[in-house]
Amino acid sequence: MKILSAGQITGPPLGEHLVAVFGVGLVGGAICGELRRAGASVVSEVPINWREPLGVEGAVRQVCGAVQRHPVSRGDDSVCPRLSVVWSAGGAGFQSPVAEHARELEHFKCVLSLGERLAQVAPLWATRFFMVSSAGGLFEGQRNVGLESRPCPLRPYGEFKALQETALGEASALQSAFVYRPSTIYGHALKGRVGLISALLLNGMRRGVSTISGDPTTLRDYVFNLDVGHWIGSEILATGLEGERCTRFLVSGKPSSILEISRLAEELLGRKLYVSYQWAPQNALHNTYSQSIVPDGFRATSLREGMLSVLRGIKNAQG
């Protein structure tokens, strides 16, 4: 977890702006990078043991302490400092057992409690919440998902994402709340799970075998982590969103097959890949999205450009 200072809020009401990012992997790291490019500075970094029951509670208390220690010049309506809480954490995946998802839900609710806690101990502060959910988990198996589509989770991963969204919707102490539903996120990060694209490129460089739980024709929507980080970071820093509660899909709107991705990886690497498909794949359903749900102004990096960036990141990390 990182706490960043985004400095003075430029629009009314005036005040300082702190941002607490829970989960600094593929998405959270991109959000922090966007905030820092905009001038934010890291105040503190708090390691969290997600398997320790009090690990998240300790981090939440540190955020409360940072807010309480922060100087507030006046106690009138013209000053309204903000705390933006970002939930981009989550180690539980598609194949994780229910117990792991249940533990993650409790972690989420603990972080969500920051709204009520600060309303009591720091009433001048307005708490906003930015949650990274999962379109893939909520709409698994659905094609051309549009504004009329309804979530229908097929496994615990999606069911618990829905429970998190519900809990956020019921958190009345928050000034505003934003839910982001990205499709299949890819990118390069030192922390976090290794997805299909990173695995294909990394194993291709090493001349290793990539085992895929899917079918060559499986269609998915892929979105670059830096695009997601840019969009969420920009909304965190935006003014005029006070009191807003909304859900946004962060998707490219372009379906791509696993075969297309494999061939593009071969083109970028300049060699053939060694790929093994599971005989009974557990993650082979199509999942695509309509252009109609792409937010106005959201720019999705082309698959080729994004994969080339991932490849460069892998090479730089390996020296």
Descriptive overview:
With 319 residues, this protein is of the alpha/beta class. Helices cover 37% and strands 20% of the residues. The protein has ten helices and twelve strands. The protein has helices at 26-37, 55-69, 98-112, 114-121, 135-138, 156-169, 196-206, 225-237, 258-269, 303-317; strands at 2-8, 16-22, 41-45, 82-87, 126-132, 176-182, 184-186, 209-212, 219-224, 245-250, 255-257, 274-277. The strands form three sheets. The protein has a seven-stranded mixed β-sheet, sandwiched between helices. It has a three-stranded mixed β-sheet with strand order 7-9-11. Strand 1 (2-8) and strand 2 (16-22) form a beta hairpin. Helix 2 packs parallel to helix 4 (114-121) and helix 7 (196-206) crosses helix 10. It starts with a strand and ends with a helix. The model has no long low-confidence stretch (mean pLDDT 92).
